[in-house]
Amino acid sequence: MPRLKDLPDVIPIFPLPGALLLPRARLPLHIFEPRYLAMIEDCMKTPHRLIGMIQSREVPGSEQRPLHTIGCAGRLTAFSETEDGRYLITLSGVSRFRVRQEVTGFTPYRRTEVDWADFTRDQGDEECDPKLKREVFFGLLKRFFAHHQLSTDWESLSEADDELLINSLAMLCPFEPDDKQALLEAPSLQTRRETLVMLMEFSLHGGDDEILQ
Fold it and tell me: What separation in angstroms does the CA of 209 have from each of 143, 178, 181, 182, 183?
């Protein structure tokens, strides 16, 4: 994994609504639009092989949707090509970043100048959540999955470490893009879990019930 001082100042970005990448997590993607096929090809020529995943904001009348200020960069760690020219890739989360400004140029995809300084802990050790009450958390999670008719391997999920459990659910659960952004911007694993609990409770009960902590 590249060290903080080795991370580039400019990266290509993939503003895919609802797609969330977190540090030390993996995100599989199916690439088929010509501009993003070009982005992958250019990315593989760089030493860092980084792509920034970021949410865009819907602004009426805007020709190009503005970006949120915080995203997460992933290193392209798996790649395969289908017979009809599509790419199947995996990004491994490296670090969140703050957008300084967009960079103009001749690429068909968007690029941004970024700052990594606020997210040095993203390249540290895995986090744990000392206040996670698994029995209570899994009770809520099972109600949420049943409500949305979702399935999972509950045995594997129950055996997952705190970070893998919470981050995987944050990435996979069907929340709105702004909710995904809130999960991304959570300053710690504990606050991400608290945000996740809030979103699941709101989804189940419209926000009227007391939020579980």
Answer: 14, 21, 23, 20, 21
